[in-house]
């Protein structure tokens, strides 16, 4: 097959303790999966009951990550770039209509990431009923650290998820507070699209989201599982 130009190389993430890299296919994100964050966003139905999970996407090449400090360019067209620290699930196998009790078998490993958000643009989009793509899926909007394989980390269902900005604690939650647990997220998402190896799922953020400025130094962690260092430039 002759192509009119060479395809762009696939985006990849490092794997902790390995020279191999993880090739990223699609990036899915769960909205409002922690009650305290749903509450701070004014989404009270989500905070009080358990509404069905909802999803949005980022392009696969919006991912930026690494073992060392990751440089993230402050995006254009916003004056209110927000951090959302989240556990990231990396799939090593695919499937459609996956049962909840089979969902863990799709997981390759876990990382900690940032679902960066143009909050000012997102607020306008919500007001007008417009899509979120440009407030959520811009270049370098999906930050991630190295992936810890399940052989090392197991299947963490509890544990601290936190974000420090310039040495100050901004977000501090626990995986056990997710309204939709990881196997339920995978099962639900797999009824909407066929999942494949290489897919990343950002599993939602706890409370404490807030603005970033150029020069901010970020340190995120899912305790005992994964960490991430980043700088906004
Ligand atoms: Mn998020």
Q: How would the blueprint of this fold be written?
A:
Blueprint: E1 12-14, E2 21-23, E3 27-30, H1 35-40, H2 44-48, E4 55-58, E5 63-65, E6 70-72, E7 81-83, E8 85-91, E9 107-115, E10 117-118, H3 119-128, H4 133-136, E11 142-144, E12 148-149, H5 150-153, E13 160-165, E14 168-174, H6 182-189, E15 200-202, E16 210-211, E17 217-222, E18 226-232
Bound molecules: manganese (II) ion.
Manganese (II) ion (MN) is lined by residues 29, 84, 86, 115, 202, 204-205.
Description:
The model has no long low-confidence stretch (mean pLDDT 96). The chain has one domain: Fumarylacetoacetase-like, C-terminal domain (Fumarylacetoacetate hydrolase, domain 2), CATH 3.90.850. Strands 3, 4, 5, 8, 9, 11, 12 and 15 form an eight-stranded mixed sheet that branches. It is of the alpha+beta class and 233 residues long. The longest helix is centred in the middle third of the chain and has 10 residues, at 119-128. It contains six helices and 18 strands. The site of manganese (II) ion has 7 residues, from loops.
């Amino acid at each position: 097959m002759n192509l009119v130009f060479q395809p762009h190389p696939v985006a990849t993430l490092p794997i902790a303790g390995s020279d191999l890299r993880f090739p990223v296919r699609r990036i899915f994100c769960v909205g409002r999966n922690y009650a305290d964050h749903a509450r701070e966003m004014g989404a009270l139905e989500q905070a009080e009951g358990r509404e069905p999970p909802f999803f949005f996407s980022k392009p696969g090449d919006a991912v930026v990550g690494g073992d060392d400090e990751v440089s993230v360019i402050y995006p254009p067209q916003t004056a209110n770039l927000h951090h959302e620290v989240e556990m990231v699930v990396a799939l090593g196998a695919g499937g459609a209509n996956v049962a909840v009790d089979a969902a863990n078998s799709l997981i390759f490993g876990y990382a900690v990431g940032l679902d960066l958000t143009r909050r000012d643009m997102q607020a306008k989009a919500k007001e007008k009923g417009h899509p979120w793509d440009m407030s959520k899926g811009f270049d370098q909007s999906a930050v991630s650290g190295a992936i810890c394989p399940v052989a090392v980390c197991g299947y963490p269902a509890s544990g601290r998820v936190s974000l420090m900005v310039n040495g100050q604690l901004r977000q501090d939650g626990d995986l056990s507070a997710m309204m939709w647990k990881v196997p339920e997220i995978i099962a639900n998402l797999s009824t909407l699209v066929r999942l494949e190896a290489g897919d990343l799922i950002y599993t939602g953020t706890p409370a404490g989201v807030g603005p970033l400025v150029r020069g901010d130094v970020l340190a995120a962690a899912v305790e005992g599982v994964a960490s991430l260092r980043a700088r906004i430039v």
